[in-house]
Design brief:
The chain is of the alpha+beta class. The protein has 22 helices and 21 strands. The structure holds zinc ion. Zinc ion binds next to loops.
Length: 632
């Protein structure tokens, strides 16, 4: 056991109620089981990537420990079933070796692979597992359902750049896939990566007092994603293709779970792939790692469209996380409830907002009705109603609740010091907080002691009490992401934040897919505004490996402490012209090399005054990874 025991309040909250939402789920996770991997997955250098064995403690039939919400416990035990499974003759899934599933569709001469997991190592292990049981077949096509890394990052484990280049393997994706893949988190990359550690908890011990689940799967693999650009983009709903003898009908669902996403139907198998638009949990309308708020209304409407298009001809449904469903009426009921869930959250959150309730109040008054509570797949094991109603509010009305008392609040440390003083000093505040802790009023303790920690992060009593409080909140959470966030907060209060390290390197393959504009936008959010007052600079760029495209010529300017870029022309007022390849610019952004080194080597030609280039690139901030979250 790595964490503290459950308090009597938590024990009471986590009392098993013997409630099994849908007994068929246990049948579904076992159905079609063929075989499992025997050992942990490591990369070619021997580094740890994923080990389903860490979750052995989640085996079926064990009594939920009092340190885990009993409903989350059951969900985690379902996710813990891992191996190769036959969905139907012609469709297989490998589940439980990554947060996502990979699906293999048998085509005339090989496999069509849907969503090749997050990392090369997990995808390769899945391919080897199916090869061991069903024999070798070449991968003749890869389909990415959407623009999130856990659905394309392992592509190099099932095919190669060469096979795709030479036409032996096609890569099919929804319209806008490449731009959204890079674009969704480019500006906020470092902050989102840090916050994602709280959402998924990859550094928590797998243990009944630590990590048990991620809602969509037990856990995330450790390793950078790869990427091969799509060779075929799906541009409209109803588009049909025959891929190596297999018919596929596509439905585009932009701005749903991901900005570029699609569902599709296999008429020959009667199988419907709902991508990540449906899963066996309520999803996030905004993940706690942070993201642009998703469109719940569109999401629900696209599920409705899928029902109209495919439900009559789909006795089988599978998704990119969790487990499949079988039976035409079951598939329809499932889709209907998923459709209604997102519509319910959207409509009711806005009904309350239009009556004047603010986000925190809506989160208090809205409860999941019995229709949704009765089913595993509409409960909040990943997303949480508390967080999702705030996402709806934020999408339409912003974070601001219209109360001017909240318009310009003091930041955490300033307000913390004043609250400590108001409470009669640190000890008085902590005495009151301890009494609230003893009474099990954990949400209030968290608020109160947060002021204390931000007023004096060195106060050990405050840190310990806050860690103990977040831990109990984590133990009680039905949502895996809430649990992970609370337990990460407790861990960092006890151990301190991680050491600041040099800016986390972005995955190379992701950088290679960046456009020039995206590179310049990434650079722009590193400009040290305080250092460039009164400085203007204009730089013309020619990218020799982009000749004949709109990306060949660019202007990058520094003006009033901000960068701007213009595509397709040069500026006659520029101080310097830079001639180089786009590939080299990307290598510099990846920190594989530097401007200075490459100028020295002659691979970059400067024509004019190099000081203008230095005015921009000499004033970029280094963004270190690992900033503090639960303390100043
Ligand atoms: Zn996913």
């Amino acid at each position: 056991m790595v964490g503290k025991p459950a308090t009597p309040h938590t024990k009471r909250a986590n009392e098993p109620d013997d409630r099994v939402f849908d007994p068929l789920d246990l049948e579904r996770v076992r159905r079609g089981y063929i075989g499992s991997l025997e050992s942990a997955i490591v990369d070619p250098e021997g580094r740890f990537v994923y080990d389903a064995g860490r979750y052995e403690f989640l085996r079926d039939g064990r009594t939920p420990p009092d340190t885990v919400n009993p409903h989350l416990w059951r969900h985690a035990t379902l996710n813990a079933h891992h191996g190769l499974f036959e969905v139907c003759d012609g469709v297989w899934q490998v589940r439980g070796y990554d947060i996502s599933n990979v699906t293999f569709i048998r085509s005339a001469t090989g496999w069509i692979v849907v969503d090749p997991l997050t990392t090369t190592a997990t995808a390769r292990a899945a391919y080897e597992l199916i090869t061991r049981h069903l024999g070798h077949r070449p991968v003749i096509s890869v389909i990415y359902t959407h623009s999130h890394a856990d659905h394309f990052g392992g592509v190099l484990g099932v095919t190669s750049e060469e096979d795709v280049r030479e036409g032996r393997c096609s890569v099919i994706a929804p319209e806008g896939f490449l731009a959204e893949t890079i674009g969704e988190n480019i500006i906020a990359g470092p902050a989102m990566a840090r916050r994602a550690i709280y959402q998924f908890g990859p550094f928590l011990e797998a243990d009944p007092t630590g990590h048990v689940d991620c809602g969509l799967g037990n856990s995330t693999p450790i390793g950078p994603p790869g990427l091969i650009a799509p060779t075929i983009e799906i541009r409209r709903t109803g588009e049909e293709m025959v891929v190596d003898g297999v018919r596929i009908v596509f439905q585009l669902t932009p701005e749903t779970e991901a900005p570029a996403e699609m569902n599709f139907h296999f008429p020959d198998f009667g199988a419907l792939c709902m991508a990540e638009n449906c899963s066996h949990t309520m999803h996030n309308l905004v993940p706690i790692r942070g993201a642009l708020v998703r469109n719940a209304l569109r999401w629900s409407k696209y599920i409705n469209e899928a029902i109209e298009l495919f439900a009559d001809s789909s006795p089988i449904l599978f998704t990119s996380h969790n487990w499949p469903r079988w039976g035409a009426s079951d598939v329809r009921e499932y889709l209907v409830l998923q459709r209604d869930l997102y519509r319910y959250i959207h409509d009711q959150a806005m009904r309350h907002a239009n009556k004047g309730l603010v986000a925190t109040e809506i989160a208090e008054v809205m409860e999941l009705p019995p229709e949704f509570l009765a089913q595993e797949h509409t409960r909040g094991f990943y997303g949480d109603l508390v967080h999702n109603v705030k996402a709806v509010y934020q999408r339409y009305l912003s974070w601001y609740d219209a109360n001017p008392a909240n318009l310009h609040k003091l930041p955490p440390t300033e307000v913390g010091k004043r609250y400590v003083e108001l409470a009669g000093g640190m000890d008085a505040l902590l005495d009151r907080a301890q009494r609230a802790f003893d009474a099990g009023d954990y949400r209030w303790v968290a608020e109160l002691v947060n002021h204390a920690v931000f007023a004096d992060p060195a106060n050990q009593r405050a840190r310990t009490l806050q860690a103990d409080t977040l831990e109990q909140l984590g133990y009680q959470s039905e949502s895996s992401t809430f649990r992970n966030a609370y337990l990460m907060g407790a861990k960092e209060l006890r151990e301190g934040p991680p050491k600041l390290t040099q800016g986390a390197r972005r995955a190379r393959s992701m950088i290679r897919a960046m456009t020039i504009e995206q590179v310049f936008d990434t650079i722009a959010v590193r400009v040290k505004a305080e250092s460039v007052g009164g400085v203007s600079a204009i730089v013309n760029w020619t990218f020799t490996d982009m000749a004949g495209t709109p990306d060949e010529r660019w202007v990058l300017g520094l003006s009033n402490r901000a960068l701007y870029s213009t595509q397709g022309r040069h500026d006659s007022g520029a101080a310097v012209k830079v001639t180089m390849t786009r590939a080299l610019l990307l290598a510099i952004v990846s920190q594989d090399t530097t401007f200075v080194d490459e100028i020295g080597k002659g691979s970059i030609t400067l024509d004019g005054d190099g000081a203008a280039l230095l005015a921009i690139f000499g004033n970029l901030d280094e963004i270190a990874a690992g900033f503090a979250i639960v303390e100043p």
